[in-house]
Design a protein that fits this description.
Elements (H helix, E strand, L loop, with lengths): L7 E4 L2 H12 L4 E3 L6 E5 L3 H11 L8 E3 L3 H7 L4 H10 L4 E6 L8 H4 L4 E5 L4 H10 L3 E2 L14 H8 L5 E4 L10 E4 L6 E4 L5 H8 L29 E3 L10 E4 L11 E4 L6 H16 L5 E4 L8 H12 L3
Helix pairs in contact: 1-6
The structure holds threonylcarbamoyladenylate (TXA) and magnesium ion.
Length: 325
């Protein structure tokens, strides 16, 4: 890592994926596309490599990271899957779901990546570029979102460059991440699955597979780490964020939803989904926050977003973006 040199830019073709895998194998940091957001990857078995992730992101060291794997078989080497975990993995992997399970006897994810916990967070990403890369690396790859800690997550290679250029070894450019919000994190530790973070798989999807209602994180859960996705202030643009806005002050930027009329006095204005489609809104969310922020406004007014389906994950990210810093 050299602050004066820019990060290597790799196309997501055969040669680019091979080079990215080679760098990861050497203990270097590589940002790569997943279907949710871009991840900042490093060999999860190598604490020196994992430390480079925390350094590049300026992330507090106690946050556990997700280990990414090419398939369920590779994940089962790392963690112990109970019936619920197996049902969810079979239903949603590859895809935007992370399972927190007890670490298995063969777990190679290092203590630093697990923040010293007895559990491990595992995910098989939904896009073929990431899975090709992971299959070539042949080891779990730790990857938080590829942004500076606390900032808006990246859904394009250009977002990664804006935050991390020169601080990481390479960026594998696989175009725009189609889901746009991070994976849903479910803990399967004690027989009753808990939703730790809403994300690309909706609560309704989980409950359809499990056949029962899924609880949130236990308030007194000592196993519950202080993770960035769980911090009050996170995903924050520079501007203040004002939720459930029905009016707009002069000079404010506006984040609209569902074809609300544009406001003429707004400094900048974007509609997450003119047709009111929550999947489209999720895909556009982080990129819209970045571009409204770039207008130089002091405040972003956000229209109400329905809390159904992917709206739960969208509203979760917006609440954190709006939280006092
Ligand atoms: O979509 C995603 O999940 C993206 C892409 C790159 O895969 N990754 C991502 O990672 O969002 P990160 O590090 O930003 O979020 C990891 C989440 C945090 O909320 C963390 O607290 C939780 O997973 N987590 C990780 N290990 C855990 C554990 N052992 N117990 C409970 N939560 C854990
Ligand atoms: Mg993140």
């Amino acid at each position: 890592m050299n602050d004066l040199r820019s990060s290597l830019r790799l196309a997501a073709d055969e040669a680019g994926i091979l080079e990215a895998a080679r760098l990861l194998g050497l203990g270097r940091t590589v940002a790569f596309p997943t279907e949710t957001v871009y991840g900042l990857g490093a060999d999860a078995t190598d604490p020196t490599a994992v430390a480079l992730i925390y350094a590049a992101k300026e992330r507090p060291r106690f946050n556990p990271l997700i280990a990414h794997l090419a398939d369920l078989a590779a994940a089962q080497v790392q963690g112990v899957f109970d019936d619920a975990a197996l049902a969810l993995a079979n239903a949603f992997w590859p895809g935007p779901l992370t399972l927190v399970v007890p670490a298995g006897p063969g777990c190679t994810v290092c203590d630093l990546a697990r923040a010293g916990l007895a559990s491990v967070a595992l995910r098989v990403p939904g896009n073929t570029i990431a899975r090709d890369l992971l299959a070539r690396v042949g080891r779990p790859v730790a990857a938080p979102s590829a942004n500076r800690s606390g900032r808006v997550s990246p859904t394009r290679a250009a977002h990664v460059r804006a935050d991390l250029d020169g601080r990481i070894d390479a960026i594998l450019d696989g175009g725009t991440a189609p889901v746009g919000v991070e994976s849903t994190v479910v803990a399967c530790l004690d027989g009753s699955p808990r939703l730790l973070r809403p994300g690309g798989v909706t609560r309704g999807d989980l409950e359809r597979i499990l056949g029962y209602a899924v609880a949130g994180p236990a308030p007194d859960d000592s196993a519950r780490p202080i993770g960035p996705g769980l911090l009050a202030s996170h995903y924050a643009p520079r501007a203040r964020v004002r939720l459930d806005a029905t009016t707009v002050a002069a000079g404010e930027a506006v984040l609209r939803f569902g074809g609300m009329p544009a406001v003429t006095e707004a400094r900048a204005s974007l509609d997450l989904s003119p047709g009111g489609d929550l999947a489209e809104a999720a895909a556009n969310l982080f990129s819209a926050l970045r571009s409204l922020d770039a207008s130089g406004t002091e405040s972003i007014a956000v229209a109400p977003i329905p809390q159904t389906g992917l709206g739960e994950a969208i509203n979760d990210r917006l609440r954190r973006a709006a939280a006092p810093r």
